[in-house]
Amino acid sequence: MTVGQLAEKMNMNVIAGANALNKEIKGCYCCDLLSWVMAHAQPGNAWVTVQTHANVVAVAILADISCIIIPEAIAVDKDTIARADEHNIPILGSSLSTYAIAGRLHDLGV
Predict the structure, then answer these.
(1) Residue 94: which domain range?
(2) SS3 for 110?
(3) How far is it, in rounded angstroms, from Cα 99 to Cα 84?
(4) pLDDT digits over 66-92, tens only?
(5) Considering its fold, how many domains does the chain have in total?
């Protein structure tokens, strides 16, 4: 499934990285500790986190994350959006909790 397909199926807002919605999602990782994500996320994962500062984009690049998903309609910093657009890292927003997002991703076969 691509990031764009996921955004459509789960009615998520595309906050940043609209030019990279064709990236393939190969799994999901839910974590808010950036160093842990760098050590344990797998390339192609959709990453669910409440962190919204610009460092999440750097972590997504290092870990080769397909997209960042921000739960609970949390606002994303303007600097983060600009950096994500610059590096073609999609950021999706959802009003759902991390738990609900992970469950839906599982149900979709991610």
Answers:
(1) 3-107
(2) coil
(3) 24
(4) 999 999 999 999 999 999 999 999 999
(5) 1
